[in-house]
């Protein structure tokens, strides 16, 4: 998951998740505490939204500020699928962001 102008969140073999950029310690801590290898794609995307909500210097998350994409393996081929603005807005709306404090509040 990549936010426009900010850090990246990756799932890699051996390293479940990593974030680089502004507020990277907060993001890394959240990922280490909340990430589970058994997450579904939906659960992983929701965690990414929570991490970005906590670490971005913005009062609101919108599809104008974020881009999400998913790498999938289908029939031995790797495919890239970018979430549409509508899919991203639906994802953001599905996460309870009121319980997430800003980086300054931690």
Task: Please tell me about this protein's structure.
This protein has 106 residues and is of the alpha+beta class. It is 33% helix and 21% strand. The longest helix is centred in the middle third of the chain and has 15 residues, at 41-55.
Summarize the structure.
By secondary structure, this protein is an alpha+beta fold.
Helix-strand layout with pairing:
Elements: E1 2-3, E2 8-10, E3 18-20, H1 24-34, H2 41-55, E4 66-67, E5 69-74, E6 77-82, H3 85-93
Antiparallel strand pairs: 1-4, 2-3, 5-6
Helix pairs in contact: 1-2
Rg from C-alpha positions?
A: 13 Å
Share of residues in strands: 15-25%
**Overall shape:** globular
Tell me the quaternary state.
single chain
| Order of adjacent strands in the largest pleated sheet | 1-4
Structural class: alpha+beta
Low-confidence stretches: 1-18
How many runs of DSSP E, i.e. beta strands?
Answer: 6
């Amino acid at each position: 998951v990549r936010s426009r102008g900010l850090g990246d969140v990756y799932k890699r073999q051996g390293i479940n998740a990593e974030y680089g950029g502004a507020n990277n310690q907060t993001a890394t801590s959240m990922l280490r505490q909340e990430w589970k290898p058994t997450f579904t794609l939906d659960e992983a995307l929701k965690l990414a939204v929570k991490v970005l909500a906590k670490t971005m210097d913005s009062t609101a998350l919108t599809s104008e500020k974020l881009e999400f994409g998913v790498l999938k393996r289908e029939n031995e081929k790797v495919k890239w699928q970018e979430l549409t603005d509508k899919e991203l807005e639906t994802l953001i709306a599905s996460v309870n962001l009121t319980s997430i404090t800003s980086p300054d509040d931690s």
